[in-house]
Every structure is written in structure tokens, then in C-alpha cells.
Design a protein that fits this description.
It is a single chain. This protein is α+β, with helices and mostly antiparallel strands. It has one domain. About 55% of the residues lie in helices and about 15% in strands. The protein has eight helices and four strands; from the N terminus they run αααββααααββα. The chain has a four-stranded mixed β-sheet with strand order 2-1-3-4. β3 and β4 form a beta hairpin.
Length: about 150
């Protein structure tokens, strides 16, 4: 019963945060950053590394690679946690884990028990996974796809 209550609280929190008005313009991004922000915000699935038959990089991952190069990248990622859909939030968590680990450690607990399901791609495998299971993979480094910071 306690687990059900925690899951419910986590989902309500995610839904409430989704209603917060925020945009790429609020974070002061350049044109490429704004486009990347909006791509992550509305991602239809979560996939990192080469996906599909051709091993292409997902639009969400490409957008994340652009966004983390922005001057206000940390603010943009934190803003996206409030407004992005669940798939977009998984990209944000990847960026936070790799580039802003203190922020990642602060926010990740609220996603560790969320049972919301979303589309996921890994190599040629398309799947439906829970947010919690993807977060566990992110924590283990299975989605560490961003270049090392210099």
C-alpha cells in the first residue's frame, strides 16, 4: 500500500510540474538551443546510441547534444524537468547525470518508482518500459552517450 501511495504522489508531482509554463525563450537559448529544447520537450520516445536498422541517433539524443553545449544548459535542463513529457525527461536525466551530477542526485529519487510507461528504443529493439526501469538504466550509465566535458 505504501508503494502505491508513493507512486501516486510521484505521478501527481510529475503532472503538476507539467502544467508549469516555461519555454526555451525563458531560458535564453540561441535558435539551435530553442529547437533542441522543444524537441526534447515533446519527444515521442526515449532512445540513445544507435537505434533502428541503420543505427541512427535519435532526434532526442541529437537535441540533447546541442542543448548541453548552450551557455544556459543547466537552466534549460532543469526547466525541461518541469515541462517535458516523460520521454523528454529521460533525456534530461541523461544530460544531468553526465554533466550536472549534483543536480541529478537531487532530482532522480522522484523518478525511481514512477510506473508511467513510455516507448523506448535500444539498438534494434523497440519496447515499452516504465520510467523507473529507464531511470535505473540511466543510473547504471547504460545511456551515457554524451561526449566527455573538456
Amino acid at each position: 500500500m505504501e508503494k502505491v501511495i508513493k507512486n501516486t504522489i510521484a505521478m501527481v508531482g510529475m503532472l503538476l510540474l507539467s502544467g508549469v509554463s516555461s519555454s526555451a525563450k525563458d531560458v535564453k537559448l540561441d535558435a539551435a538551443g530553442e529547437k533542441a529544447y522543444n524537441t526534447i520537450k515533446t519527444a515521442s520516445y526515449f532512445g540513445t546510441g544507435g537505434i533502428g536498422r541503420g543505427g541512427t541517433i535519435s532526434q532526442g539524443e541529437l537535441a540533447l547534444r546541442i542543448l548541453v553545449k548552450q551557455v544556459n544548459a543547466e537552466s534549460a535542463l532543469e526547466s525541461l524537468l518541469k515541462v517535458a513529457n516523460p520521454a523528454g525527461r529521460m533525456y534530461v536525466l541523461v544530460g544531468l547525470k553526465q554533466y550536472y551530477p549534483a543536480v541529478f542526485a537531487e532530482v532522480v529519487p522522484q523518478y525511481q518508482s514512477v510506473k508511467t510507461k513510455l516507448r523506448s528504443m535500444r539498438g534494434c529493439i523497440a519496447d515499452i518500459k516504465t520510467v523507473a526501469s529507464i531511470v535505473a538504466e540511466i543510473k547504471k550509465g547504460q545511456h551515457d552517450v554524451l561526449p566527455k566535458r573538456k
